[in-house]
Fold this sequence. Notes:
Layout: E1 12-13, E2 18-23, E3 33-36, E4 48-50, E5 63-65, E6 74-84, E7 94-97, E8 104-106, E9 115-122, E10 127-138
Antiparallel strand pairs: 1-6, 2-6, 3-4, 3-5, 5-6, 6-10, 7-8, 7-9, 9-10
Amino acid sequence: xxxxxxxxxxxxxxxxxxxxxxxxxxxxxxxxxxxxxxxxxxxxxxxxxxxxxxxxxxxxxxxxxxxxxxxxxxxxxxxxxxxxxxxxxxxxxxxxxxxxxxxxxxxxxxxxxxxxxxxxxxxxxxxxxxxxxxxxxxx
Length: 139
């Protein structure tokens, strides 16, 4: 099964949503997993970037972007609660960060080299319960 096909305009917070705000260190797409860069001295230190399960320095998730943003613009991201990911989900599927930057994949798609970062579980055809968990496991 490939990465989720998301419609950014359909991504929205749900019940119990907890949000934070940051600044985009690159173009961010709503619905994508993001992390706050903490590399001292980097041009994007403290800014939000798309997560990537296949790159050690980007295999981190702090939340899911609720809006799209260009470099330097504000990004609201969700850290907990229910979320409409703007995609068709299979109830019960465990969702993880993909090795494609800013994308989400079902856990069954993890391949060699991916860091397994659980994003949550699908509760309905359009709704996910976020539970961010870096398992520290690499496939």
